[in-house]
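Dear Dr. L.,

I hope this message finds you well. Following up on our conversation about the binding site, I have prepared a predicted three-dimensional model of the protein together with nicotinamide-adenine-dinucleotide. For your records, I am including the exact sequence and ligand specification that went into the calculation, followed by the C-alpha cells. Please feel free to forward this to your student if that is useful.
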Amino acid sequence: MTPLINPATEEVLRTVDLLEVDAVDDAVARAAIAQKRWAAAAPSERAGALRSFAAAVDSHIGELAALEVANSGHVIGNAEWEAGHVRDVLTYYSASPERLLGQQIPVAGGIDVTFNEPLGVVAVIAPWNFPMTIAAWGFVPALAAGNAVLVKPAEITPLTTMRLGELALEAGLPEGLFQVLPGKGSVVGERFITHPDVRKIVFTGSTEVGMRVMAGAAAQVKRVTLELGGKSANIVFDDCDLEKAAATAPYGVFDNAGQDCCARSRILVQRNVYDRFMELFEPAVKGVVVGDPAARETEMGPLVSKPHWETVSSYVPDGAPIAFQGSAPSGPGYWFAPTVLTPARTDRSVTEEIFGPVVTVLPFEDEADAIELANDTPYGLSGSIWTENLSRAMRVSHAVESGNLSVNSHSSVRYNTPFGGFKQSGLGRELGPDAPLHFTETKNVFFAIGEK
Ligand code: NAD
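The resulting structure of the complex is given below.
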C-alpha cells in the first residue's frame, strides 16, 4: 500500500495497493490468452474496439484531467490536453489494424510475402512526468498491432493510467488484453524484464534505469524501446526574431515545471545579442504564472514530490549564479520558482538533467561553437534553433545530434510524427506512422509455384 500525495497541498489523496510478483505472473498468463483471441479477431473488429476506447476517453476528459491535476500537479489546461492526446493517439492508431499491409516481393519460382506478426505480450514501464500520454505512446500502437499490453505506471502517479484501464474494459476491450499493474519498479518492472512470456519492454524514464532494463532484457534477447533523459539546447542566433525567442523560451523549459524530457534546459545565445536577449528574457520569466494547478490562469504548478524538490534544489545552492528568478507560492506544496542560471560551461547545472524549472544560459561565438556546445552532452532528445536564415537552419538541424528539433518554435511531440532520442536519450522511436511496426516481427513466407 502506498499513499499518494497531492503535490500542490501535501495532502494524502488516497492509497494504492502495490502488486507483487505473483500478481504479475497471473496478469501475464491472462494477457497471453487474451492476445491470441485479439490477434485472431477481424482487423475491422480490432479497429472498432480502439475507436470505442477513444470515445470512452473523450467522454471522460474532465475526470482524467482532474485526476492528473490532483495526483501530479499538472496545470488543468495541460492535463486536459494530455487526456485529449490519449484519445487522439487511440483514434490515429485505430486505422492501423486494417493497414498493416506487409509486402509482396518479386522473386523467382513463386510468390514471396511478408506478414507483420504481433509479438505477443508487451510491457510498458512509464515515468511520473506525463503518466497518461507516455503510457499511451506504448500501449496504443502495441494493441493496434495485435498485442496484449501490461502497463506499470510510476509508483507516485498511477491514478490516470488505472482509470484508462477501467475505461478500456467499459469500452469493450476484452478482459486481460490491457492491464494496468501498479507496483514498484524493483518488483513489477523487474518481473516484466525476467518473465519469458513478455516479449518486449517499452521503458520511459531515467537513463540510469534504462541501462539496467536494456542489460536485463539482453538475457532473453527481449526487444526494447527506451525513451530516456535529455538536456536539450535552445540555440538563439543573432539573426532571429529575438523578441519571440525570448518570450517563448520560458515555455520551452518551464512547461510542466521543467519535468519534461524535452525541456530546452540549456539556452545558448550568440554573444553579440546575449545582453539584449537577457533583457527581454527576464520579464518573460517573471511573467510565468506559478500557482494552484486547478486554476485556469496558472501556467506552472508544483514539482511532483518532496524528494524531487530536494533534487532540483541541489542545483541551486547558496551562491549559485542566479541571473533572475520568477515567483512561486509559499506554504504547503512542492513549489519552485522558475530560475535562470549563468554558470560556467562545465558546471553540473549545465551538464546534468535537472528535470525542474531551472535553466542555464550560455553565450556562444559562432555557428560552429553553437553546434559544439549543443552536442557536448551524452543526451540527444530534443532542441530548438532560432534563426531567420534558412540555410543556417538546415545546416544546424543536420549537425545537432538529437531526435526532435524545432526551428523557430519549441514543438516536440505530435502523435503523427516520430519521437525518440539519439545517444543516451534512447533507442527506437515512438509515435508516427511506423509505431505499430515496432510491435511486430516481420515474417517472410515463400510460396513455390509448381510446374503445370
Ligand atoms: P525512473 O527511471 O526513476 O522510473 C521510470 C519507471 O521505471 C518507473 O515506473 C519506475 O517504477 C520504473 N523502474 C524503476 N526501477 C526499475 C527497475 N529496476 N526495473 C524496471 N523498472 C524500474 O524515471 P522517473 O524519475 O520516473 O522519470 C524521469 C526520467 O524519465 C527523466 O530522466 C526523464 O528525462 C525521463 N523521461 C524520458 C522521456 C522520453 O520520452 N525520452 C519522457 C519522459 C521522461
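In brief: Residues 125-129, 134, 152, 154-155, 185-186, 189-190, 204-206, 209, 212-213, 227-230, 261, 353, 355, 381, 421, 425-426 surround nicotinamide-adenine-dinucleotide (CB under 6 Å).

With kind regards,
A. P.
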